Amino acid sequence: MNAGDFSDTATREVNFDGLVGPTHNYAGLAHGNLAAAAHAGLVSNPREAALQGLAKMKALADAGFAQGVLPPHPRPAVDALGALGFPGTPAEQLAAAAAADFSLVRTISSAAAMWTANAATVTPSVDAADRRVHFTAANLQSSYHRALEAPVTRDVLAAIFADEAYFAHHPILPATPAFGDEGAANHTRLCDDYGTSGVHLFVYGQTGLSEGRAPKHFRARQTLEASQAVARQHGLTTDQSVFAQQNPAAIDAGVFHNDVIAVGNGPVLLYHEDAFADEAATLDALETRLMDIGAVLAPVRVARDRVSLETAVATYLFNSQLLSNADGSMRVIVPAECEHEPTVAAELDRIVAAPDNPITGWQAFDVKQSMDNGGGPACLRLRVILSPAERAAIKARVFLDDALHDELAAWVTRHYRDRLAIADLADPTLIDETRTALDELTGILRLGSVYPFQRETSCTQTR
């Protein structure tokens, strides 16, 4: 396969990582995310978190991988407070919300938008009938703090992927439990080459409109109906799609998204034995669909007697990036926690040594600030397959190079706090700090006025 071709003339996968936001904090908002719950209330370091993410991006860009960046969302999201009955200036709204119920302040200050694997589901042009790249921003309706992200995500993606000749943007699915959509964290595209047809694996937690198997302790965030609706929006046929249910027991063990228990790239699916409700049927369906397009599935199974489900969740072994090198081999990008857990490190060594898969190396990165909040390397990136013409159609400055990295690192150092306690979220100066930083950032990235506060200011000035 030539999926690892690093030339400018190749169709390539671009990993768009989310910049960690200025209000990165440990509020413990995500029900079912064990790491987020375990670290709730701790003091965070937004500056370190953002620089850790940038360091990973730069290391991969330096290695030749196509690397993009997505901006943070405005937090605290005081614009949401008006609908909740809090009038006044942004500072007055924040103060009133803090006095009424501090949990509201924690909710609107979430920096979870950095986990851009939840931003959207993306279909490359090679799989679409109209030969455009298709996007559906995720509704993230399972939790209020994440549902706030959907409109801004839609606007940011529309600003970056703006040329209608190359990109299509679909409506966000209805924000109801029946159509709970968590984006690419529950979607994997398998293929031979990035530039040839692929098969889309949609993994759901439960059905939304009918009775079916469901977890007993934690809610399932993705429904079958949502996955099917996205596939229809993007024009994917039954021959291009496989819908598989996540193992309910895995969700109850803390596997809130499929990307916590499986990762795919090219024809390789790296997964835990307990990932799917019906492992054999899932593999059979993928194998058949891939065979129809001339590709051969390469499953890499991790048995529970080598890495327990609990250890997989604790180390985020599968919340990793599986990347193609220029020679067609692959490497796994894992969090540093995998390196420090002997059973996981040994399993990675076993996978690398096995002759029946193209994975030839693994590399650990320190993203502890993100890990402690419940997101590993895979959470931090949205994968978008782009042809040379599609890359050229993007006018925003979002492809990471040395100059952009250095400018972003300086921007973070200039604007981010190195300490943020939960009580600090009620500080009204955070509003101005964040808005000033993001206003400057949209200039650096050449995005225009993508944030509501920017458009409101513009309208006020016009009037």
Main pleated-sheet profile: 3 strands, mixed
Could you say which structural class the secondary elements and strand pairing correspond to?
alpha/beta
Instruction: Please estimate the helix content.
Output: 25-40%
Level-1 CATH class name: Alpha Beta
Number of helices: 17
Supply the number of structural domains.
1
Q: Biggest sheet, strands in spatial order?
A: 2-1-15
Give the integer mean of the pLDDT values: 92
Describe this structure in words.
With about 475 residues, the protein is α/β, with parallel strands linked by helices. It has a single domain (about 15-75, about 110-460), classed as 5-stranded Propeller (L-arginine/glycine Amidinotransferase, Chain A). It is built from 17 helices and 15 strands. A hairpin with a 2-residue loop joins strand 9 (about 260-265) and strand 10 (about 270). Helix 2 (about 45-60) runs antiparallel to helix 15 and helix 15 packs antiparallel against helix 16 (about 430-445). The longest helix is centred in the N-terminal third of the chain and has 17 residues, at about 45-60. It is globular. It starts with 11 loop residues before the first strand and ends with a helix. The mean pLDDT is about 90.
